[in-house]
Amino acid sequence: MAGLSIRDVLAHGPLASRIVAALFGGYALAALVSVAALALPMPGPDAVFTGMLLSFLIYAGAVVWVFAVRSARRAWAGLAVAALPLLAAGAWVRWGAGA
Asked: pTM here?
């Protein structure tokens, strides 16, 4: 029984990185969307419901997109770029309008 060699790790590293990006990066993006939806100009319960529905779409789209881009590095970069405005909206909800 042979262990993993460096060559095996390097060959499967990008795939593992994409899987982690799809699972955890997609989840983080979906969570940010659901929080950022509270910044929408609508009553609170409607914003929560809208954010919840949008989070399912965003998570599925993020998973598909992570495996569709050319490299794992681009997948992570795309998730980070998409998260920036959502982080700003979430911060605005937390410290701006929500306070």
From this structure: 0.80
